[in-house]
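Sample intake sheet
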Amino acid sequence: MTGKRPLKSNPNIKLHIPATDLGLPGLEIVRMRVAGYSIELYLEQKYNMKREEKMTLKYIIYKDEKYFVAQCLNVDVSSFGETIQEAQENIKEALELYFEDEERKKEVIQIDEVLFGETVVNV
């Protein structure tokens, strides 16, 4: 190996790469050590990962001509699907998107019991 010096370990070398580029959200590479020909990468929790909260919400599903409509009773969110299962999946997704805004958690109406009824009115 003429003219080449071996690489020495240096703990002061820092390399900052968003870990999302590596498919590791919430982690960041903070140090790279070079020892001989091997490279060691150290990952550190850099960001506060959003803690997933769970909330139980009530919804109804009814058939409206061609589609099944899912309507949440706790907040004003609805969705639909060609099948009951698709309507269920779509209302869940719509509610998760709705609650991405933290302020909307304050708008939830607490519903403990659900009863369904039907009546005839003069129109």
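Comment: The chain has a mean pLDDT of 77. The longest helix spans residues 84-98.
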